[in-house]
Amino acid sequence: MKFSGSLLFLAALQGASAFTSTAPKSPSFTSLNVAPRGGPFQTEQTRRNAPAPAIGGGAPGAGMAPAGGKSRYTKDFMRTLRPVKVQGSTLKTCSFNESVERVQVFLETGGRPLNAEVDLWQGPDNAPQKMRVYLEDGALRPFSAVIESPGAGNAIAIRNTAPMEFPLSAYVEADNQGPGPARALAANSKPRTVQGGAVFTTPFAPNVMSIQIMLNTDGRPLNARIELLQGPNNNKQVMEIYCEDGMDRPFFVVVETPGDGNVVRIVNTATLEYPLAAHVEAFVIDNNRNIATQGAGLQWS
Predict the structure, then answer these.
(1) Most CB atoms closer than 10 Å: which of 65, 241, 246, 269?
(2) DSSP β-ladder status, 7-10 and 29-31
(3) CB 258 within 8 A of CB 211
(4) What are phi and psi of 183, to 5 degrees?
(5) Kindly report the CA angle at 239 between 158 and 156, in degrees rounded to 5?
């Protein structure tokens, strides 16, 4: 799919919206600076002064604990930001300057299904990263990903491919802290190589409330599909990912896993010559929930 866009204007006010609504076939850009807390972006100063949200929505020390993750990547943190409504069959874009190293993209609905496409644009007719997302319940299992944005001229395009009756809420937040969650996870976990055309699955314990997944390559393109299943052939969440360079732009996502019997399936949809490395770890664990069975950790199969 080819996109075309034209630069409209540079916003002079910090409180201006970072999104611009366009027709699906003729998108345009709005270029904005980082705005104070309450808008789509936060400054580093307001981020340092803001109180850290509780993991999993409970009070600190209530039994919810992160496992190798940061609280800023939870749904509770993203919901403190200002959402932008994306109606069905509508495209909205968010552009930013080159000082933004990566952005967090959070999509949810009021409980209805979600069908959307999220693209990273870098200049005209160039989309180095593309994602197609399906959620059975956009409130119970929202989409939360971190997109690397090296270089200049970057923009995030969010297209709601569902009918008009299924709007979604989009949150976009700049993230310039440290090396980023993708590289942090890669440094603290052991990868599993998934050859082209191969399928790997991993179940996890009922007390794991959400997990973090990172996919990367050695610099080759990345084509993969991530599925969250709860029971045989029961897809709760499906993500199809394409990255032009799986090293410069690794894919990182936090997947909510409420209930029991959750399984993550990773499919390398590329050919045999394009393997990928998969990192899967627990993100939020409910320590108050008793596990009757052994093997509470993640187990590759």
Answers:
(1) 246
(2) parallel
(3) no
(4) -75, -30
(5) 20
Number of domains present in the structure of the chain: 1
For the question of whether the overall pTM of this predicted structure is more than 0.90, the answer is no
In-domain check, residue 140: yes
Token pair belonging to 105: 């993209």
Predicted local confidence at residue 87, as pLDDT: 96
CB atoms within 10 A of CB 254: 24
Q: Which residues contact 85 (CB under 8 A, 6 or more apart)?
A: 167, 168, 169, 170
What is the block-wise mean pLDDT of the chain (301 residues), using blocks of 10 residues? 38 38 35 30 34 32 43 82 94 90 95 97 93 97 95 94 96 87 92 96 93 96 97 93 96 95 97 96 84 46 44
From CA 280, how far away is CA 69, in angstroms rounded?
12
> One-letter amino acid identity for 164?
M
| The pLDDT of residue 293 | 41
Tokens of 114: 């979600």
d(CA 204, CA 75): 20
What's the alpha-carbon Rg for the chain, to the nearest Å?
19
**1 in a structural domain:** no
Answer yes or no: is 139 within a domain: yes
Which residue matches tokens 């409420």?
258
Q: Which helix (H) or strand (E) holds 14?
A: none
Give a yes or no: residue 144 inside a domain.
yes
We report the CATH number of the domain holding residue 56 as: 2.60.120.680
Q: Please give the residue range of the domain that contains residue 29.
A: 7-286
| Tokens at 81, concatenated | 């930001």
